[in-house]
Amino acid sequence: MDILLLSSGFDWYAWILLPFLIFLARIVDQSLGTLRIIFVSRSMRKLAALVGFFESLIWLLAISQIIQNLGNWVSFIAFAGGFSLGNYVGIYLEGKLAMGMLCLRIITHEDATELTEVLRENQYGATTVSATGKSGMVRLILTIIKRKDLQKVQHLVKQYNPKAFISVEDVRTVHEGVFPEQAPSFLSRLNPIRK
Q1: 171: helix, coil or strand?
Q2: Phi-psi region of 136 (alpha: psi -120 to 50; beta: other; left: phi over 0)
Q3: How many CA atoms lie less than 13 Å away from 23 in the CB half-sphere?
Q4: CA distance linking residue 187 with residue 195, whole number of Å
Q5: What is the CA radius of gyration of the chain?
Q6: pLDDT by residue (tens digit) across 13-47?
Q7: Do 128 and 121 meet the contact criterion of CB atoms below 8 Å apart?
């Protein structure tokens, strides 16, 4: 088979290397596109604009190769496969970056005094409210945290109130508040959290 491919003038560039490069370009450009959409939804204008520039540049390079090689069906499959995998990679990267803020609603039937104190000792703001649930009086704790602190806060909640109900949602912007001090990152310098 190898001898047949070499002797028949098989075009390695057109049928192997070019589709592979298109596949890689689409992974990168779609990953950037996924991140850009997330940045836009979080009002991170500077990052969204910067990422959008590179996303469109890479897409143009990939699509220009497709147009120049319209008879190469392997490039079409590589283009679509890179798009698909790029979505997955983009979401994975966003999870690893853990940017943005979250609102946690913690609802418990148990006394929440110790949990609230522990949250405040760890520099997390915590607002408590008495409320009524389906089965009677409950304590509602509201806290806004940085996304990267989610597992730590969930661990604290489960440690002090293991049966607490927790709901989590994204927060677009935050003004004022209490947050643990952390060294500024490259991304935070581009889009500082308004607090």
Answers
A1: strand
A2: left
A3: 13
A4: 16
A5: 24
A6: 888 999 999 999 999 999 999 999 988 888 889 99
A7: no
Whether the model clears a pTM of 0.85, i.e. scores above it, the answer is no
- What integer pLDDT is reported at residue 177 of this predicted model? 65
pLDDT at 145 over 80: yes
Q: How many Å from the N-terminal Cα to the C-terminal Cα in the chain?
A: 65
How far are the Cα atoms of 59, 66, 84, 109, 116 from residue 78, in angstroms, in the given order?
13, 10, 10, 54, 52
Q: What is the pLDDT of residue 163?
A: 92
Residues in CB range of 41: below 8 A, 6 or more apart: 170, 172
What tokens appear for 136 in the block? 């009677």
Pairwise CA distance, residues 179 & 181, whole Å = 6
* Strands ordered across the beta sheet of 136-146: 127-133, 136-146, 101-108, 165-171
The per-residue pLDDT for 191 is 58
Distance CA 143, CA 126 (A): 5
